[in-house]
Amino acid sequence: MARKVLVLGEVREGSLRNVSFEAVAAAKTSAEGGEVVGVLFGDSVSALGAEFIQYGADRVVTVEDEQLKQYTSDGYSQALLAVIDQEDPEGIIFGHTAQGKDLAPRIAAKLESGLISDVTDLEVEGGNLVFTRPIYSGKAFEKKIVTDGLLFATIRPNNIAPLEKDESRTGDVSSLSVEIKNLRQVIKEVVRKATEGVDLSEAKVIVAGGRGVKSEEGFEPLKELADVLGGAVGASRGACDADYCDYSLQIGQTGKVVTPDLYIACGISGAIQHLAGMSNSKIIVAINKDPEANIFKVADYGIVGDLFEVLPLLTKEFKELLVNA
Amino acid sequence: MNIYVLMKRTFDTEEKITISSGKINEDGAEFIINPYDEYAIEEAIQVRDAHGGEVTVVSVGTEEAEKQLRTALAMGADKAVLINTEDDVEEGDQFTTSKILAEFLKDKEVDLIIGGNVAIDGGSGQVGPRVAELLAIPYITTITKLDIEGTTATVVRDVEGDSEVIETSLPLLVTAQQGLNEPRYPSLPGIMKAKKKPLDEIELDDLDLDEDDVEAKTKTIEISLPPKKEAGKVLEGELEDQVKELVGLLHNEAKVV
Ligand SMILES: Cc1cc2nc3c(=O)[nH]c(=O)nc-3n(C[C@H](O)[C@H](O)[C@H](O)COP(=O)(O)OP(=O)(O)OC[C@H]3O[C@@H](n4cnc5c(N)ncnc54)[C@H](O)[C@@H]3O)c2cc1C
Ligand SMILES: Cc1cc2nc3c(=O)[nH]c(=O)nc-3n(C[C@H](O)[C@H](O)[C@H](O)COP(=O)(O)OP(=O)(O)OC[C@H]3O[C@@H](n4cnc5c(N)ncnc54)[C@H](O)[C@@H]3O)c2cc1C
């Protein structure tokens, strides 16, 4: 059944986040031949419309306002509800990001609709659009369908492949004027901690350190390897609790959930709460000096050894490989 | 100050998970207060101690949630309410739970509602923002700090590792992120006192809701375990050779680099 699906793109530092392109791909599947309409909010975002279309949106609607430069739940919901009013969609897809998690449930409540959060896969099965999502901290999966009303979902970054960029695709980018008013939340200050370098939730490669890293300086060899691979550095709670790094790097049940192509765990024992955040990574490498460490049970490849000996060698070897490639 | 905490009883995900007849097997499993809701309870107690007022912990569920509600009372909450759905609703989703909670809260003249940012079993993170929207009050999710002065609240929100300092006003709903506080353990006198504290039980009827008003909008059609991973390969030999082999495997076999 063809349906019109809206995709809310997410702009960070002037560009569209990768998850927005993944969301377009998910919207294409959900639309079953219907129209995919990209939606962008910010103070000046219409220039990004063309790229959204090259990744598969049919057209783009923007709402531009100084007050939409930074995300607030009030500002974005006023803008989105106006777009929904104009477009009358049958489906909506967001990224399951800080912004998507914050905004989507509110919109769903307002529209009295269901919402399927943190989707890692979707497909049409027996006439139904079926969404797959992890439950029980990634230890099980459920398949869900919408039984009543709007088809509304947020998708987990790094799981649904974006469509190939097609530079010849064009479409209409129109703007909708919305009066943004009475914002009840005022952002006084933003303290950036995490976003130097690659974003953990979207990184294709993560080099993560645990208590075995032993100090703040101990993270240096991990950073060097991550740099060579264009990846991000993550950590176990053990490392965060010991003050070797900031909590913003924590991966696990109470930290971030990540699904990179490659996860390299260094000096991490593999506690169940840590596994909850990374066990769905495509390939896991464990480096640990204890051959009995639990992390080896989930690892695809393991090296038993001292991380401070292994990492420099690994970095050197990758450098050579990538220079020759 | 009139403070409410939203508390979910959850499956302890440290437990091994098995499936029997299409459902997660709960036999003999350990159930706990959702860890993020422990932060919510702790924060509520601290706000009350600083500003006066009362903390009420509310949970939608079955009789079995009484145990976790008692624990919350033992930590120091003043009252607990169980909205027992056992006899009325069979299948629910986040729409269901949020609607019930909002119906319960709408005439309570709340100043502050604190929930967890996500339940570790269902994992949607929907209930907090949904409830706030239904009550038409502002909300801030994943907070790591809360300061209240008069009717102004200054909140630090964790945004994928960055922090935003946000000013907003009461009545307000916030959801707790790790780092907000260190939840206390119930003390022995706390446990004794909790036995005498009020734990009310109500049903949908008491909220003038019937089953149709809260009918789920989504449905789970299948539950499965993740595909079993083949045992990994622990490399052997000289360290330098292991490293070379690993790089080769990642490049040629796994093709991730
Ligand atoms: C409610 C709750 C929530 C939690 N949430 C999280 C979470 O989100 N994320 C998380 O990570 N944890 C979480 N934890 C904590 C978790 O249980 C573990 O305590 C933590 O993951 C351990 O961190 P670690 O592996 O770094 O430390 P350890 O368990 O101490 O392991 C250190 C490892 O390093 C190895 N090692 C030491 N030196 C070297 C060396 N030179 N070279 C190589 N290897 C070396 C050791 O052999 C050991 O295996 C949570 C716990 C609870 C109770
Ligand atoms: C009558 C009924 C029947 C249900 N039937 C099913 C079913 O058949 N299948 C199924 O999979 N699930 C069922 N559920 C559970 C439901 O789908 C969700 O688990 C629930 O709505 C919470 O969603 P979540 O786990 O994603 O929590 P999240 O939205 O991630 O929770 C975030 C926060 O919201 C608050 N919160 C969440 N749930 C509650 C609660 N129950 N009481 C108080 N505060 C809460 C807590 O503060 C929590 O930290 C049913 C629920 C109800 C009420």
UniProtKB/TrEMBL annotation, chain A:
Matching InterPro entries: DHS-like_NAD/FAD-binding_dom, ETF_a/b_N, ETF_a/FixB, ETF_alpha_N, ETF_asu_C, ETF_asu_C_CS, Rossmann-like_a/b/a_fold
Residue intervals of the Electron transfer flavoprotein alpha/beta-subunit N-terminal domain: 5-191
SUPFAM superfamilies: Adenine nucleotide alpha hydrolases-like, DHS-like NAD/FAD-binding domain
A Pfam match: ETF_alpha
Domain of life: Bacteria
Keyword terms, alphabetized: Electron transport, FAD, Flavoprotein, Transport
Family listed: Belongs to the ETF alpha-subunit/FixB family.
Protein name per Swiss-Prot or TrEMBL: Electron transfer flavoprotein subunit alpha/FixB family protein
Source organism: Cytobacillus stercorigallinarum
Automatic annotation (TrEMBL), chain B:
Keywords: Electron transport, Transport
Stored SUPFAM superfamilies: Adenine nucleotide alpha hydrolases-like (SSF52402)
CDD domains: ETF_beta
Highest taxon of source: Bacteria
Residues covered by the Electron transfer flavoprotein alpha/beta-subunit N-terminal domain: 21-211
Cofactor(s) listed in the protein's UniProt record: AMP
InterPro entries xref list: ET-Flavoprotein_bsu_CS, ETF_a/b_N, ETF_b, ETF_beta_N, Rossmann-like_a/b/a_fold
PANTHER family: ELECTRON TRANSFER FLAVOPROTEIN BETA-SUBUNIT, ELECTRON TRANSFER FLAVOPROTEIN SUBUNIT BETA
Function comment: The electron transfer flavoprotein serves as a specific electron acceptor for other dehydrogenases. It transfers the electrons to the main respiratory chain via ETF-ubiquinone oxidoreductase (ETF dehydrogenase).
The protein's assembly and partners: Heterodimer of an alpha and a beta subunit.
Similarity remark: Belongs to the ETF beta-subunit/FixA family.
Name of the molecule in the record: Electron transfer flavoprotein subunit beta
